[in-house]
Design a protein that fits this description.
119 residues; mainly beta; six-stranded antiparallel sheet; two-stranded antiparallel sheet; 0% helix; 42% strand
């Protein structure tokens, strides 16, 4: 008789992204290429982010009594876009830059590859 050993699945942590909520970002590719906006929300497991004023879609809402839009209609909202299409804008030089991580004062901090300053 064979012994069956079940291995416990390792818990997957969400991946680290170079984009965080509140960052000013520039869109690198797609229909909205070159647009600049602020990150509203990030979905790390899916690798997506919602950027204010970028990737606007029209959504049809049915009338419901207990919702944000009781009258229904067509609303415009931002759709999530992949974070690989976004580049963070360095506030000190106001230009898009790549992001690195380094250990400072006992914690990891993000820094700009162009200026070398922490974000």
């Amino acid at each position: 008789m064979k012994k069956v050993i079940f291995q416990q699945k390792r818990r997957q942590s969400s991946p680290k992204l170079h984009v965080k909520t509140g960052d000013q970002v520039k869109v690198l590719s797609g229909d909205d290429r070159g647009k600049v906006g602020r990150v509203i929300r990030v979905f790390p497991k899916k690798g997506l982010a919602i950027v204010e004023g970028v990737a606007i879609i029209k959504k049809r809402i049915r009338p419901k009594t207990n919702s944000r839009f009781p009258q229904g209609g067509v609303i415009e909202m931002e759709r999530p876009i992949p974070v690989c299409k976004l580049q963070v804008i360095d506030p000190s030089i106001n230009k898009p830059t790549r992001i690195g991580r380094r250990w400072e004062n006992g914690q990891w901090v993000r820094y700009s590859k162009k200026s070398g300053k922490t974000l």
